[in-house]
Amino acid sequence: MFRNPAGIFPLSYRQDMALVRSRPQIAVLLAFLVLLVLGPLYFSPRMLAVMNTSMIMAIAVLGLQINLGYAGQINLGQAAFMGVGAYSGGVLANFSGLSFIVVIPLAGLAAAAFGYLFGVMASRIKGFYLALTTLAAQFVFHFVFINLPADWTGGAKGLAIAPASLFGFQFNTEGRLYILILVVLVLMTYGAFSIVRGRYGRELIAVRDEDTAAGIMGVDVVRTKVRAFLLGAFFAGVAGALWGYYLRYISVDQFTLFNSIWMIGMIIVGGMGSITGALIGVVVVRAIQEGITSFAPVLADAVPSLGSELIFASYNIVLGILIAGSLLIEPKGLMHRWNTIKSSYRIWPYPY
Amino acid sequence: MNRQETLATLPQVHPGTPVLDVKGVSLRFGGVSALSDVSLHVGQDELVAVIGPNGAGKTSLLNSLAGFYHPQDGDITLFGNSILGMAPHRIAKAGMARTFQGIHVLSTLSVIENIMLGCGFNAHGTLARSFFYHLFGSREEVALRAKAEEIADFLDLGLVRHQPVGTLGYGLRKRVDLGRALALDPKILLVDEPMAGMNGEEKEDLARFLVDIRELWKIPIVMVEHDMSVVMDLADRIYVLNFGQVLASGRPAEIQVNQDVINAYLGGSYKAGVAT
C-alpha cells in the first residue's frame, strides 16, 4: 500500500501526486545522477562499454514496459522495432547529413510507424495470437532490410554510419558516447514516467486489466492499443538510432528474436508495470550476462570437455532459468519486492 | 468544471421528452431471443427499475444500452440521438455511464486513480505533450484530481483514496465503481444489481447515494435489482421483464398487485414492504 515517508504531508494535489516527494529523495536522486554522469572517470573500459549497450537496451526495454507491462499487449518484436529505428536513423544520417538531434527522434517516429501496423492488429486479436503476429515483425524486418537495394541499407553487408557530432564535437569514444546515451536515457525515462503517471497511463492500465469494460469507462480501447504500440516502438526506434551511432555499423543480425526475448526476460525480472522495474531488470540481467561472459571461459579452461560453445549455450540456459525462476519465486518482479520492503520499513516498528 | 456548471450545461430537454428512449428493441444470439420488442423510456429526474427473473434479459438490456451488444431491431435514443451501434466509449462520452454487476475496477490502481480514469474521458492533452509532465501534463492532472476528489468526497471515499482498490472490501469496491461511473459526468446512470452481495448497512449507504445522485445531481438512473424492498422504495417506475419481453410497467404500487408479475416473479406470498 502507498504510504508517505514519515513527516511528509502534501498540501496540494500537485505535491500529493509528485513522484519524488521529500528532500532526501531529491538529494539521493541527484547524487545518483551525478555519479552516473561522472561514470567515464572511474569506469573501466569494459564497464563503460557494458554500460553503453545496457543503457541503449534500457531505452528499448522502457518502451516494451509501456507496451507489455502497462498496456498488456504482448510484443515479441521489440528488437525488430529497434532495428527499424537503427536503419532509418542510419539511412537518414548518411543521406541527409542531418544532426543526430533530429535523426534520433525521426528514427523513433519511423519505428513508431512500423509499430502502428501491429497496434492496429492488436485491436482485433489478443494474447497468444497477438504474440504470433508480433513475431512476424521480426521476420518482416529481416526480410525487408536485407532485400532493400544495397546502396540504401547495405543489404547483407550491413550499413556503416558516421559518428554523431555536434558543432564539430564528435561522439566517437566510449566516454563521449556514454554521456550522449545517458542524456537520452534520462530524457526517455522521464518521458516514460510522465506518460504512465498521467491519463494515458491509466488508460493503458485499463486496457490491460479490464479489456472489455474499459470502453464503458470512457477509454477508446482501439486507440489505446495503437498508442501502446506507437509508444513502445518509438522508444525502440530511439534506442535503435543510438545503437547505430554507438556501433557505427548495423546489420539485420543485431536485432534478432533472441534480443526481443531477452528484453521480455528483463521486464519479467524487474517487474511488469513499473518503469523503475524495467531499468532494474536491465541492470540485473545484463550483470548476469556479463557474469557469464567472464566466467564461462574460466569454466571452459577448467573443464575442457564442455567445449567452446559454452558462452552461447549457457546464455540460453540462464535465460530460461532466469525467467522460470523469477516467475516461480517473485512473479511480480524485483520492483514489487522492493515496494513491499519499502512500505514495511515506513511503518516500522508497527506490523501494519 | 464543478457540479453546478455541469448542471448548467445539461442539454435542455422539453419536460415531456424522455432522456433515454428504447423503441422496440430486439436482440438475438443465433436462435436465442434475448430481448424481443422491448420498449421503455426514462425521463429527466426519474429512477426507473428493471426487474425480472433470472435470464429475463435485464443485463442484456443494459449491455445493449451501453453498446456491448448491438440489437438487430429497434432503436435506442439518448436525448433524441440514436446511439445504436456506437462503440461503448462513444456512448460513455455521449453521457451514459454504468456500473457493473461483477466488479470491474482497476485493482492495481488507487481509489482516486480509478475515479481519475473516468474523469479523463474528456481531457484534451495530447500524447506528445504528456511526455513532458512538468511542462504540460501536470496542470491537466491536477484538474482531473480536483474533480475526482469532489466525487470521492461525495461517496465518502476520502479516507481510502490512496489505497489500491484490490485491497478494499466488496462494498467499497462497488462504491469505487459507482464513483468511476459518476466521473464520466453522466446524463443518465445505469446501475446493474448495485445491492448484490452487500450487507444491510452497505445497502442503506448505497441507497442513500443513489437517492442523492438523483436528487442533488439530477441524474436519472436505470437500476437493475433483485432486492424488492430497495426497488419498491427507490423506484419511481418499474419495468418487469420476462423471457425478453416487457411483462408490465408502472409505479411500484401497481406492480405489487399485478397478477402477471406475481405469477412470473414476485411469487404468491409477496407482500409489500417485506423483503424477499
Q: Report the helical percentage of chain B.
A: 25-40%
Broad CATH class of the domain at 1-85 and 222-276 in chain B = Alpha Beta
- Identify the strand order in the major beta sheet of chain B: 6-7-8-3-9-10
Please identify the top-level CATH class of chain A: Mainly Alpha
CATH topology of the domain at 1-85 and 222-276 in chain B: Rossmann fold
CATH topology of chain A: ABC transporter involved in vitamin B12 uptake, BtuC
Q: Characterize the overall form of chain A.
A: globular
Could you tell me how far the N terminus lies from the C terminus of chain A, measured between alpha carbons in angstroms? 10 Å
The tally of structural domains of chain A comes to 1
Strand content of chain B: 15-25%
- Helical run tally of chain B: 11
- Average pLDDT taken over every residue of chain B: 84
Number of separate helices of chain A? 15
Oligomer state of the chains in this structure: heterodimer
Structure description:
- The complex is a heterodimer of chains A (352) and B (276).
- Chain A has 15 helices and four strands.
- Chain A is an all-alpha fold.
- Chain A has one domain: ABC transporter involved in vitamin B12 uptake, BtuC, CATH 1.10.3470.
- Chain B has a domain at 1-85 and 222-276: 3-Layer(aba) Sandwich (Rossmann fold), CATH 3.40.50.
- In chain B, a hairpin with a 2-residue loop joins strand 9 and strand 10 (245-250).
- Chain B starts with a helix and ends in a 10-residue tail after the last helix.
- The relative contact order of chain B is 0.17.
- The mean pLDDT of chain B is 84.
Summarize the structure.
The complex is a heterodimer of chains A (352) and B (276). Chain A is mainly α and 352 residues long.
